[in-house]
Amino acid sequence: MSSISLVTTIPGPRSQALTKRRSQAVPRSVAQINPIFVKRAHGALIEDVDGNVLLDFAGGIGCVNGGHADPAVIEAIQKQSSLFLHTCFMAAPYESYVRLAERLNVLTPGSFPKRTFFVNSGAEAVENAVKIAREYTSRPAIICFDDAFHGRTYMAMSLTSKMKPYKTGFGPFAEDVYRIPYPNPYRDGASISPEYCVERTLDTLNELFVNRVSPEMVAAIIIEPVLGEGGFVVPPPAFLPELRRICDAHGIVLVADEIQTGFGRTGRMFACEHFGLEPDILLTAKSIASGMPIAGITGRAEIMDHSMPGALGGTFGGNPLACAAALATLDLFEREHLCERSVRIGEIFSARARQWQARFSCVGDVRGLGSMQAIELVRNRSLKEPATELTREITRYACEHGVILVTAGTHGNVIRLLAPLVISEGELNEGLDVIEAALHAFSPRETDPSDQQMTEAAYGAGKEKHRPD
């Protein structure tokens, strides 16, 4: 039985009317990726205001790993709302904030003592991580990575790599920010060896230390264990442990931005676990509370306790409704074994996507960990020229046929999977059928048998050999 149910064309008349109202009320600079307006959502399904039911492969851009409107999460929010909505934790604290901090201190990688505090968004978590690292080390410089995304507030935007649309016209940016390449096996080293792109990045880092900023001036290195907005790029297994060693050698705080990778998206609770990485500070947000606005900064106790009382906090950080939702969401992960389900989702997607790669010349790369999966579309496999317009066409087609997608990548040529982890296998395959139909409709050509053999040789066994696990 089909989960997708389209009773009008997409967008329907009510969504079209709301889009017109939106244009008169909301700045055009606030993007609208898909042309529908939502009425209700449950699990992995969204119903729009016209009565169309679509599969959600975007998941609120990674915020609903536990699914839309889980009954236990809704019940926890309703129960808390009947007690009190806000006191400000700094003025009149409450137990749920402490309990959530305790759970994150245990769940996050590292057996050392930790502390956690809460803010409202991922960008705000990034801002605070920079503050903490600078105050703890008494150093000014921050190192980040090409193709990274860390948010839209001032410091977070300075750390974000992509200029358009995130940074153009918003400068000048924060000082003492230095950028090095993120190791990208597909674009930087697959034809040589998986280790090549690691060596390239580390060589660039060493050159940076010599020519631009001494390591004794670096407060922190901030990294996404798997690139999110930058294209779902998985680094080679050796990279993050080596980065940990370098940070230890120079007294640099290592910050893991797990805002998109966390809470089961990669098949582990946190992506760092795939690489044996224990960061000094780990940042969470998005799926921590099934869509409620909260973000966490969890770090080594000696780092987090270093600042004076009152140096950290915020009026709404750790709002009681959001804390209740987060605690219920963590219970949901345990009850429904969502990390294991994430692994299965990734297996199904990867198997289908490998078939697409063998069949469609535009599918240049298939990659990911757990359900954090993606395909990179190219105009030419040899040159790997990004197929940005083709990616837009496939996303549009998918929405018109009942699947909500979001893209990624610096050039907007990556289709990423962010479906809720509660999605059924039937729903998942139904959505993948729509993507396959879009590839068939818009791909310049299908590959011939020799292309298929080449693809299997280049992207099959070699990829499996170098998985982080």
Question: Could you tell me how far the N terminus lies from the C terminus, measured between alpha carbons in angstroms?
Answer: 36 Å
- CATH-defined fold name of the largest domain: Aspartate Aminotransferase, domain 2
Number of domains: 2
CATH superfamily of the largest domain: Type I PLP-dependent aspartate aminotransferase-like (Major domain)
Count of beta strands: 16
Strand order of the largest sheet: 4-10-9-8-7-5-6
Q: Could you give a short account of the major beta sheet?
A: 7 strands, mixed
CATH class assignment of the largest domain: Alpha Beta
Distinct helical segment count: 16
Question: How does the overall form come out from the CA principal axes?
Answer: globular
Structural class: alpha/beta
The radius of gyration is 22 Å
- Provide the β-strand percentage band: 15-25%
Mean pLDDT: 93
How much helical structure, as a percent, in the residues?
Answer: 40-55%
EC number: 2.6.1.19
Family: Belongs to the class-III pyridoxal-phosphate-dependent aminotransferase family.
InterPro entries: 4NH2But_aminotransferase_bac, Aminotrans_3, Aminotrans_3_PPA_site, Class-III_PLP-dep_AT, PyrdxlP-dep_Trfase, PyrdxlP-dep_Trfase_major, PyrdxlP-dep_Trfase_small
GO molecular function, one term: pyridoxal phosphate binding
